[in-house]
Design brief:
Layout (H helix, E strand, L loop, with lengths): L6 H16 L4 H12 L4 H8 L3 H9 L1 H49 L12
Helix pairs in contact: 2-5, 3-4
GO molecular function, one term: DNA binding
Organism: Homarus americanus
Keywords: DNA-binding
């Protein structure tokens, strides 16, 4: 352990690093900074929005190509997870919708084919 850090501070740093790894670091924030800079916002304005020093914003903007490359390789993995989850949800919703459609269609057929009733005519 470094002598200038207390045990609590060291633990906080370790937790922060774990969160950065789990959450994918700051790629989203860095992409937002790069996008804002490309749209013409100044480094001090961007720094105020994100709570960063203008020098930090400048260094992020300087490494914009690397950040975009890193984000490009990370986004398909996230999209795959979302797509897999969405497929299961979509199948479930399609099944519910299909069941409901079949029930309503069956109810309409019973009403239309009832003995002694003329076919239903809708006049709009």
């Amino acid at each position: 352990m470094r002598p200038d850090l207390s045990q609590t501070t060291l633990h906080s740093i370790q937790l922060l690093r774990k969160l950065q790894i789990m959450c994918g670091g700051y790629v989203g924030r860095e992409l937002d900074i790069v996008k804002r800079h490309e749209h013409g916002e100044g480094t001090s304005v961007i720094g105020c929005v994100h709570g960063l020093a203008p020098s930090t914003v400048h260094s992020i903007v300087k490494s914009a190509d690397k950040i975009k490359e890193m984000a490009g390789s990370a986004i398909p993995l996230t999209a795959t997870k979302v797509t897999r989850f969405r497929d299961a949800e979509m199948k479930n919703m399609e099944q519910i919708l299909s069941n409901r459609y079949n029930k309503e269609n069956k109810a309409l057929m019973v009403i239309d084919n009832a003995p002694g009733h003329p076919p239903a005519v809708v006049d709009w």
